[in-house]
Amino acid sequence: MTQRLTPTAALLLVIPPLLWSGNAVVGRLVSPLVSPMTLNLLRWAIALVLLLPFAAHVLRRDSVLWPQWRRFAALSFFSIGAYNALLYLALNTSTPINVTLVGASTPVWMLLIGRLFFKAPISQRQCWGAVLSVAGVVLVLSRGQWALLLNLRLVVGDLYVLMASCAWAYYSWMLSRPSPESASLRADWSAFLMGQIVFGLGWCLASTGVEWTATPAHIEWGWPLISALAFIAVGPAVIAYASWGAGVARAGPAVAGFFINLTPLFTALLSAAFLGEAPQLFHGLAFALIVSGIVLSTQRKG
């Protein structure tokens, strides 16, 4: 039996893809100013500072976080570490359209990983919902012209996106299976997120160290970069991750996975707004397909 999607859960799950879409647009704008791994490290370092007034107690020696360090290290590895690092790596070797298209497989990986590692059943409605959702993403990326998809060429970056999608799916399932010891932290969104950021910064430092050692890394300080960092730390990092965790807790990871496919639609609309282009008919059709997939996947039998 699938979980019923409440209005509160739906709102919580719409917020992250909207903010992540803004992150994609801003990230592209500042890419000449800062290397990708460095941008990710700065983003989460600022997020940690922002959360200190609300969750500094998590860092105390007697905090319940430290006995669970292995779980939080794993949570941060699959999300802040692996997911973000793999996406940034992908954009160095692949095109945005390829990255988004391969990323559209996330609902499918949510279902498969849930079945393989967490013994979660897969319903026929969820399968058809996944098909509709992916079709909506393909429609956005092809701009309603299917011939554009024939020009796609898969590269190594696409493999990174596939790995990132699997990492995010596993992370989401871990969120839905909290340990009894983490109940007190899970009840406080700022403390729970702080626990992930503390260990996530370790993964970010490692990837940034490799970046500055093995690549021509760079950073150019100025108000454009500072403004971008302020946005991506507050929105796509703190607010989006807190909303995603709360939404997954209410709707379950299998249902939540379908909402990720709103990201390319929001990205296309935001890009169109910044470029002064009017939304097209295919945007509306794609939205209808993605939402239909979400609705179908959350309906109960009978």
TrEMBL record:
Membrane topology reported for the UniProt record: Multi-pass membrane protein
TM region(s), chain numbering: 40-60, 72-91, 97-118, 127-146, 152-171, 191-209, 221-242, 254-275, 281-298
This protein's UniProt keywords: Membrane, Transmembrane, Transmembrane helix
Keyword Transmembrane belongs to the record: yes
One GO cellular component term noted in the UniProt record for this chain: membrane
Compartmental location: Membrane
Pfam families xrefs: EamA
Main subcellular location: membrane
Residue span(s) of domain EamA: 9-141, 157-297
InterPro entries found in the cross-reference section: AA-Vitamin_Transporters (IPR050638), EamA_dom (IPR000620), EmrE-like (IPR037185)
Family: Belongs to the EamA transporter family.
PANTHER family documented for this protein: EAMA DOMAIN-CONTAINING PROTEIN, INNER MEMBRANE TRANSPORTER
Identification of the protein by name: DMT family transporter
